[in-house]
Amino acid sequence: MLAILGLLTSFLSFLYVIAPSIRKFFAGGVCRSNVQLPGKVVVITGANTGIGKETARELARRGARVYIACRDVLKGESAASEIRADTKNSQVLVRKLDLSDTKSIRAFAEGFLAEEKQLHILINNAGVMMCPYSKTADGFETHLGVNHLGHFLLTHLLLERLKESTPARVVNLSSVAHHIGKIHFHDLQGEKRYSRGFAYCHSKLANMLFTRELAKRLQGTGVTTYAVHPGVVSSELVRHSFLLCLLWRIFSPFVKSAREGAQTSLHCALAEGLEPLSGKYFSDCKRAWVSPRARDNKTAERLWNVSCELLGIQWD
């Protein structure tokens, strides 16, 4: 046992010695766009922390009017204050949005539409991961309800404003974990069998299928959409898993910072000439391989229709 601990200690020491080189390698792609955003309006969910906060910071730096849509308004105000001071952009606003409650989603959308006549970029960034089994206010399994259905409804409610503001973009944060996911239509809510790890993967596949079907339905409207894998990022997303928190800490040289994790979201929100790639999946600021299940048009259409039924909306 002492020998094993000695080897582990030596290995970790070696990792930290070469950490700068490792971090540079694993930092991934960088958004190269120089596009400025004066007069543009952006909504980012979950932008009070992590990747969303760094995305909001960069878009504010480019002159956009940025709405931080988050559940924790006090934390959102703290983030907004920091971003305003950093970017010298006073147009960073915070609005209450709880994606686990459709009443909150509808209230946010109603308030935003009354306040703003344009919306150029919607970034569906917020999410949960590895939650013990629980349900949202509307009775949806939490991963499905927050990661997929919440953003599905939000996009539906804001879509006409996006169409009125073209060219406009919708960026959906998914994950490489979608490769493990599967849509179990007979048990979408995980009531028969539940694994919190797989539940996250299933919801990330749902994000991929939503992006694919949304792109198909938006053809010719001037609104385009993209799915993003931000990378393995140091964020609060893993807070529900002690093991992942421990692994993230041990292997920190391999983990992206929140700023590095925001780069692909920024690329898909800003890069010029991306319109022909609507519906595609990006990682490290370039197109990435998509699992066969995420390319299944029949599953994408069925998930769309089931999502509408669950939410009680019509979206043709």
Automatic annotation (TrEMBL):
<keyword id="KW-0443">Lipid metabolism</keyword>
<comment type="similarity">
    <text>Belongs to the short-chain dehydrogenases/reductases (SDR) family.</text>
</comment>
<keyword id="KW-0560">Oxidoreductase</keyword>
<comment type="pathway">
    <text>Cofactor metabolism; retinol metabolism.</text>
</comment>
<dbReference type="GO" id="GO:0001917">
    <property type="term" value="C:photoreceptor inner segment"/>
</dbReference>
<dbReference type="InterPro" id="IPR002347">
    <property type="entry name" value="SDR_fam"/>
</dbReference>
<dbReference type="GO" id="GO:0007601">
    <property type="term" value="P:visual perception"/>
</dbReference>
<dbReference type="GO" id="GO:0004745">
    <property type="term" value="F:all-trans-retinol dehydrogenase (NAD+) activity"/>
</dbReference>
<keyword id="KW-0521">NADP</keyword>
<dbReference type="GO" id="GO:0052650">
    <property type="term" value="F:all-trans-retinol dehydrogenase (NADP+) activity"/>
</dbReference>
<feature type="signal peptide">
    <location>
        <begin position="1"/>
        <end position="19"/>
    </location>
</feature>
<protein>
    <recommendedName>
        <fullName>NADP-retinol dehydrogenase</fullName>
        <ecNumber>1.1.1.300</ecNumber>
    </recommendedName>
</protein>
<dbReference type="InterPro" id="IPR036291">
    <property type="entry name" value="NAD(P)-bd_dom_sf"/>
</dbReference>
<dbReference type="Pfam" id="PF00106">
    <property type="entry name" value="adh_short"/>
</dbReference>
<keyword id="KW-0732">Signal</keyword>
<dbReference type="GO" id="GO:0110095">
    <property type="term" value="P:cellular detoxification of aldehyde"/>
</dbReference>
